[in-house]
Amino acid sequence: xxxxxxxxxxxxxxxxxxxxxxxxxxxxxxxxxxxxxxxxxxxxxxxxxxxxxxxxxxxxxxxxxxxxxxxxxxxxxxxxxxxxxxxxxxxxxxxxxxxxxxxxxxxxxxxxxxxxxxxxxxxxxxxxxxxxxxxxxxxxxxxxxxxxxxxxxxxxxxxxxxxxxxxxxxxxxxxxxxxxxxxxxxxxxxxxxxxxxxxxxxxxxxxxxxxxxxxxxxxxxxxxxxxxxxxxxxxxxxxxxxxxxxxxxxxxxxxxxxxxxxxxxxxxxxxxxxxxxxxxxxxxxxxxxxxxxxxxxxxxxxxxxxxxxxxxxxxxxxxxxxxxxxxxxxxxxxxxxxxxxxxxxxxxxxxxxxxxxxxxxxxxxxxxxxxxxxxxxxxxxxxxxxxxxxxxxxxxxxxxxxxxxxxxxxxxxxxxxxxxxxxxxxx
Length: 427
Fold this sequence. Notes:
Layout: H1 7-20, E1 32-39, H2 42-58, E2 62-69, H3 71-83, E3 90-93, H4 95-103, H5 125-129, E4 132-133, E5 136-137, E6 140-141, E7 144-145, E8 147-152, H6 153-159, H7 170-183, H8 199-208, H9 224-239, H10 246-249, E9 268-272, H11 276-282, E10 287-290, E11 305-306, E12 309-312, H12 319-331, H13 333-339, H14 349-355, H15 361-373, H16 388-403, H17 409-426
Parallel strand pairs: 1-2, 1-3
Antiparallel strand pairs: 3-12, 4-5, 6-12, 7-11, 8-9, 8-10
Helix pairs in contact: 1-3, 2-13, 9-17, 12-13, 16-17
């Protein structure tokens, strides 16, 4: 993992801490003080701090200070704190990074707590195993999710074009989005955001073609030819006016607040299903969520994954207390209700059954989506190798170079594959 600190990202992260962190500091003098670090939107911050407050009310001897950052700033912050010997007690973890952190000895093995203070047996083996590294549990699944396409239904209706639906092909999506743009019902508005730099979309497209991002032994599962065709697909989208131009897409800083749909630049965007609640909260118009496009002969591209996991630092001075809080979030009805489905559909069957009848309409859309998608998903891919996190940012960078015309699709693809392969080898 790279520890290079981007000053702008770090300052943005510090601003987020100042904005939200104080909400969790009210009882810093309690007998047991812990720090909780996570990434996400304001919606997630509000729900997380509410859960912390409720837990502290039941456990007055516990104080939990919270810090939240955007996705890219988060990993810089966590790497810096971990390298400096001051990691948070409670760490929101991603499937992409859990193997790297666990194998470096920075995460607590939760296996001894299973069936005791960590009562997650009803998660089922697949959802428990999603937090395992080398046979030991290092993370607890906070919710099941998958990638999704978000649709602004009102914008499509306004343009007089039928909204996209499950089963639409890539070509059909491009043609339909071009019609939305051509309708010119909204100034500076396009059919879709540009996902050429979006790793989840690229991975889904690769899997549909029988390829993968990474092989089981940690190598790239695709070639420069595949990446070139991916960049060319989105080049065609730009040519026919289906997606936003490069200078507009560059405004997306990989936060929900700067998403192309949220900022009213496009009628379609791409995210993970656990983010749908937060996206709808930022948009007044009614939204829908559908599966990624696929062709009739495509292999399953999408899969169910832990939207994120909660891990405990191996160096925490309050390991038992940290595990108890994790259990509260996923198995206690109060904690689970407070979090809702913003981090994904609960892995616990008990909690899922408890929450569903009382969910609002938006949350029920997410649960319904996962239900529709489940019969058509593929297997969870192998764990990403060390260095994979750098490749996600690399894809975005090179995709932007191609979109701005600084590089051809082929040259960009060659550069991406060479650097991506070097990253995982070095990692």
